[in-house]
Amino acid sequence: MTVQTPVAPDVRSLVDALLADAMGQRASDVHVEPALDGYELRFRIDGILDTHRRLEPALGRAVVGRLMVMAKLLTYRLDVPQEGRLSMPLAPEDRPVELRLSVMPTIHGLRAALRMPAEHVQPAVLEDLDLPPAVVKALTDFAAGDCGMMILTGPAGSGKTTTIYALLRQILRSSPGLSIVALEDPVERDLPGVTQIEVSPFGQLTYEKALRSILRQDPQVLMLGEIRDCPTASLAVQAALSGHRLVTALHAATPAGALARLLEMGIEPYQLTSSIHGIVAQRLIRRTSPDGYRGRVPLAEFVAMDPPLKKAVMERRDTTALAEIYRAQTGYQRLYDVGQTLVKQGVTDQAELARVIDAAK
């Protein structure tokens, strides 16, 4: 249900109340979107973006302006995109947490998108993620190892970063004293014990430059927020081949698609078969509740780089053939089957499973 909000003189109190409301509803993102007749305030909750309330034009502009002040952005620049951070406590007695703000000019005014602090909606440790047992075991085994590359795949908003952060915490717990470095765009939450570096894909400190430099600083475990281009992919594989443990995300729908994309980036098959420990594909699906849906649980599958799959990669088989081969792995369970298990357990329903996983069957 949406509410038309009148202009309020105390914009500061209004913005504080809106952010507190978003946190209370466990929103992951807040959008303040200009339109012809006003602004829409929208919350993304459990992956779904809905209108929370509508604001009159003057109030909408004031809300965006207040957010920009909080993030120390240039309020007089209405013609360029801007990004910044602001902080606020989750509760009066808590230390402040960081929120990321992005502002973009549109034909109707400035549009603001606010990423809420992940720690107030997402679990922090591997055991609390509700991943399938086979995936938890695979990640735990990797955390206890000493080399190789673990790849997380899935669309944007599928929980890859949350799983990666939990995996890094598992490595810290199982192997204290390691040198762990994370290259991220942007840094989403603070990880004590990990050296976190914020890269800028279109600035001076790109993934490629940061990775090339950090390899000279004696890291043992590396995290790349994402492999986006050929040079970064090549360096990541070389790092894994030279005895580093490396965790990264890659936008691909399936493990087979991830392998195909790396081959298309020019990585030699023998490098992939020698460097990759395994691939986790992930989605998030909403839980059912008496009044609809509340909260989400991950669907995930793990593919190990076993001998049959290595042989298929060496032969540069297509994605269909690769998928057929790894589906024969002992213990493998595809995403759709994981979802069907959750449907039978009453965790979710068939309609939600079809919404999330239909294209990835």
How does the SSE layout of this entry go?
Elements: E1 4-5, H1 11-24, E2 29-35, E3 38-45, E4 48-55, H2 57-70, E5 82-89, E6 96-106, E7 109-115, H3 133-143, E8 148-153, H4 160-174, E9 180-184, E10 195-198, H5 207-214, E11 221-224, H6 230-241, E12 245-250, H7 255-264, H8 269-275, E13 276-289, E14 292-304, H9 307-314, H10 319-326, H11 335-344, H12 350-357
Parallel strand pairs: 1-4, 8-12, 8-13, 9-10, 9-11, 11-12
Antiparallel strand pairs: 2-3, 2-7, 3-4, 5-6, 6-7, 13-14
Helix pairs in contact: 1-2, 3-4, 5-6, 6-8, 7-10, 8-9, 9-10
Describe the structure.
This protein is α/β, with parallel strands linked by helices. It has 2 domains: 4-119, 2-Layer Sandwich (Beta-Lactamase); 122-360, Rossmann fold, CATH 3.40.50. It has helices spanning 11-24, 57-70, 133-143, 160-174, 207-214, 230-241, 255-264, 269-275, 307-314, 319-326, 335-344, 350-357, and strands at 4-5, 29-35, 38-45, 48-55, 82-89, 96-106, 109-115, 148-153, 180-184, 195-198, 221-224, 245-250, 276-289, 292-304. Strands 1-4-3-2-7-6-5 form a 7-stranded mixed sheet, with helices on one face. Strands 10-9-11-12-8-13-14 form a 7-stranded mixed sheet, sandwiched between helices. α6 links the parallel β11 and β12 (245-250). The longest helix has 15 residues, at 160-174. Residues 1-8 have low confidence and may be disordered.
